[in-house]
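Lab manual, section 2.4: Encoding a predicted structure.

Procedure: take the sequence of the chain (500 residues), apply the prediction step described in section 2.3, and record the output as structure tokens. A sample record is shown.
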Amino acid sequence: MAPNKTIPPLNDKSLFKQECYVNGEWVKAKSGKTFEVKDPGTGKLIGTCPECSKEDTDEAIKVAAAAFPSFRKTTGRERSRMLRKWYQLMVDNADDIAKLITWENGKPFADAKGEAAYAAAFFEWFSEEAPRTDGDTIPATVPGNRVFTIKEPVGVCGLITPWNFPAAMITRKIAPALAAGCTVVAKSPGETPFTSLALAELAHRAGIPKGVVNFITALENTAEVGSAITASQTVRKISFTGSTGVGKLLMKQSADTLKKLSFELGGNAPFIVFNDADLDVAVNGAIACKFRSSGQTCVCANRLYVQKGIYDKFAAAFTEKVKGFKVGGGYDEGVTHGPLIHDRAVSKVDAHVRDAEKQGGKIHIGGQKMPDLGSNFFQPTVITGMTMDMQLASEETFGPVAGIFPFETEAEVVGMANKAEVGLAGYFYTKDLQRAYRVSEALEVGMVGINTGLISDPAAPFGGVKESGFGREGSKYGISEYQITKMVTMGGMGEPLQGS
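Recorded output:
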């Protein structure tokens, strides 16, 4: 059955914006050019957004720089109140935010509501961190000297976010930046700009001062906009979430100005199930970890490794769960999984499935495109008999395909898991406490989930190692990515009391 083409109306229609937000005003691209945004489920036009250029980007950077001197002088408590207002407005408008996410991203409405709540939580978390950006007092080795540090905002920040979490990736970057006292230029994803523009409208209502937050959009000009941000002498910090290839390009472009960087890049997460694991818990965890957002998250399980003693049982139980999925439009009743973002994503998923099939993999369920639903739909797929020679073993699929690899020993599976250029997240299931420590310490990843497939939390530091990038988002560590630590030494402080 084709997806429902009737879009639930927004409760507040003024949240649907088709212009950029710069210096507290809604503006078009200086060229007048726009690009189209289409519903990935139906292919129908949602609306248009400005095709910003270098000129538009430079203007946004200019106003962010003008706003920085006054905004940096606000107290942490003042910034906390701003973020708290923005948080409350997101909570009050969560239903509309979720509708926009489903409309332009395609994920089921229930998942979109979860993202809306998750996104708002970053404003709440960093509203609580803003007043607590403490420095240190350091005992000096030189008599008479007094040494202390203060935390200062790094300056104007360029934020570049992906389409798979249109709300959460924006708030996870903007919240700590504002908490630290920085001003920002946020480049919205061309595939999903309307969610971020709704957040801009809520920022306006929350009383965020003009020029502090600026949102620009582009699709064809994405590379031009990125280059303008990296080349700018004014922008002192860039935070990017996206592919490793683009991250490397941005890093090269930022070298001339030696910007502070934090990158959350590609993932190829291993998901390991040992013989002693609780089978039902492991199956449920794998389902949630692999198929959330149809496999289109950077921390999705991409390689499932199951020890040989329970391999067949796991594969059978896992496949049975997948049989209960319902694929369709995000607004349709009972739908558990929506479309992929575009036809290029479908082509990559199909290529991985065909490669595994050709090399002896057995497809237990799925494995085909779903043209009766639309061009961007692919069946949730389970493949056994996976080998390390298959594309899925070394490439991030970013789609609803679960390849299950057999293994025998801890050392073997950790070796397979670490045989990747990236290292974002890893998961494993066991009841053995000593194994939990051994394996978590041996995995070359930035985040580990033990007996859970869901690790994202505003309170937890999010980030990777190797070619998955560097820096951390969320948690008490997240705000430091937008700060510099200034050391102050005061001399001549060792004199005796006057009159003594």
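Check your result against the sample. The two ends are 92 Å apart (CA to CA).
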